[in-house]
Amino acid sequence: MTYHWILGPGAIGRLLAHSLTPLAAVTLIGRRSLPGQQTLTTPEGKTLGRLLNSLTVADLEADAREAPAFVHITTKAMAAEAALESIASVISPTTPLVLWQNGFLAQPRITQAWPGPVLCATTTEGAYLTSDNGVVHAGRGATFVGDLNHQYGELSQTLAETLTQAGLATTAVDDIRSRLWQKLAVNAAINPLVALHGVRNGQLSSEAYAGRVQAVVKEVAAIMQAEGIQPPNDGQGEAAWLALVWQVVENTARNKASMLQDVEAKRPTEREAILGPLIENAQRHGLPYDVLQVLDADLATLEASYLNAR
Ligand code: KPL
């Protein structure tokens, strides 16, 4: 039996736990304990009940356990490093980690700091939580895994096979860096605007927002070029990035983006992990980033208005 620990019992963490449980020994780890009996609603609308092994970090510290073959970190980007630190004393420093965060903040930092293998995953699987014991797998997607330094191709392949067998179609890739930046580019064009204006993704194509989306993509496309990230779908420059963004806006028209959900729930957003690396790279390459900076500042003000009122 292979042991998988999943640190961060959010929607993706729980989807992973439900999917892997028939194949592996799974432990879901959070700051508080969850009900053992959990349900998964499949994209086809079936509800499946499962007993998941859910523990807190304190439980892990109290008893010795089998060493995990993989530790998946499925927290939000800004919580990933602290989450890893919270369990670092109970795992071997050679344990393979799998980072599932958005943006490009946690991945390079943890890759540099952790002595063992660090794989990064990016997924378009759609999932959301309904309660303390329910997760909905809203739509099937594709997952890619790889490591930033091209050192762990075989391990990525092993993980991709396991995840695929678990029902999450996964491919091991040697260009995970580009894929993470591609997702970040799309997130930067959609998430801040919908979060600031409280609108669903589809509304971005209306006259009120389309020009602002284009202005963000213009800055992002130049940063991508400077960072050597190829435009998507074998296209050319800004037009290819814009086409991808409009395609995602259309495909997810009725979605509330994750950043809007965070704002509505008065949680910290992934602003730093998404806009931070873009602004930092624009500064390094001497490129314009006025539009990104305004979005970042407006989001920071919005976040402060509810976080400081707690
Ligand atoms: O990934 C997303 C998110 O919500 O974070 C997008 C692509 C914007 C879809 O909603």
SSE topology string: EHEEEEHEHEHEEEEHEHHHHHH
How many distinct folded domains? 2
CATH class annotation of the largest domain: Alpha Beta
Looking at CATH, the homologous superfamily of the largest domain is NAD(P)-binding Rossmann-like Domain
Tertiary shape: globular
Secondary structure tally, helices? 11
Question: How is the CATH topology of the largest domain named?
Answer: Rossmann fold
Main sheet characteristics: 8 strands, mixed
Determine the strand fraction and express it as a percent band: 15-25%
Helical coverage, percent range: 40-55%
Which regions have little confidence, pLDDT < 50, spanning 5+ residues?
Answer: none
Architecture per CATH nomenclature, i.e. the level-2 architecture of the largest domain: 3-Layer(aba) Sandwich
What would you report as the Rg, rounded to the nearest angstrom?
Answer: 19 Å
Average pLDDT, rounded to a whole number, is: 95
User: Structural class per helix/strand content?
Assistant: alpha/beta
β-strand number: 12
Strand order of the largest sheet: 5-2-1-6-7-8-11-12
Ligands, deduplicated: ketopantoate
N-C termini distance: 44 Å
